[in-house]
Design brief:
8 strands, binds pyridoxal-5'-phosphate, alpha/beta, globular, single chain, eight-stranded parallel β-sheet
């Protein structure tokens, strides 16, 4: 009982902070979507967030998302599930079947697998391209310099409309620099939305134009490791 109240309060607190950060930058609170990141969270916390009214959730693995959401999906027609973790091409079909938004498109092989899965299933999740703004070797995402060409291929060869860009800044650098870079890349390349900012830095991201923020621990509490 206490726990579901905690989640309801934490969510309200985050929504207030989102609203304040937006207004401080001349934006409306509605212009920023809270994506509650439910990866590695127990089912009762997910249900508490749903009971509190949360409808947009982020997951970073296809299989875990199927376990979390397989049965809840039908009970909440207005649910929106977003994939925010790396996607292997051989999971593209499962991802297309489950997710409403895929935020981690970052290579042509995956584009091809998604195109096939979308054509076969008739489902069309909205798409974001992940950009590796810090050019970190271990991190997914296209390099900033490769973004224009990649977007051209996605638009022309795969007939994809790209809704937004997504980034995960390097932990040891000021996130704001990366958020500003992502915003600049979006503007230069005619992409409308920006998925950026997490529990520790979502207000900075909103100041730099985030249209969605991905908040996990600040809503749900500490995750299982
Ligand atoms: C886990 C995760 C988040 C949420 O992180 P918190 O620090 O718990 O808010 C956001 N984005 C991505 C891509 C993640 O994997």
């Amino acid at each position: 009982m206490t726990e579901s109240l905690d989640i309801e309060n934490a969510r309200q607190d985050i929504l207030s902070r989102i609203g304040r950060a937006a207004q401080e930058h001349g934006r409306t609170p509605e212009s920023v979507t809270l994506v509650a990141v439910s990866k590695r969270q127990p089912q009762d916390r997910i249900e508490a967030a749903l009971a509190a009214g949360q409808r947009v959730f982020g997951e970073n693995r296809v299989q875990e998302a199927q376990q979390h959401w397989g049965e809840l999906r039908d009970a909440y027609p207005d649910l929106e599930l977003r994939l925010i973790g790396p996607l292997q091409s051989n999971k593209a079909r499962d991802a297309v079947a489950l997710f409403d938004v895929i935020e981690t498109l970052d290579r042509e092989k995956l584009a091809k697998a998604l195109r096939t899965a979308m054509d076969e299933t008739g489902r069309a999740p909205r798409l974001y391209v992940q950009v590796n703004t810090g050019a970190e070797p271990q991190k997914s995402g296209v390099l900033p310099r490769d973004l224009p060409e990649f977007l051209k291929v996605l638009r022309e060869a795969y007939a994809f409309e790209i809704e937004g860009l997504m980034c995960i800044p390097p932990v040891e650098e000021p996130a704001g620099l990366h958020f500003a870079l992502l915003a600049k890349l979006a503007q230069e390349n005619g992409v409308e939305r920006l998925s950026m900012g997490m529990s520790s830095d979502f207000e900075i991201a909103i100041g730099l134009g985030a249209s969605s923020v991905r908040v996990g621990t600040a809503v749900f509490g500490t995750r299982a490791s």
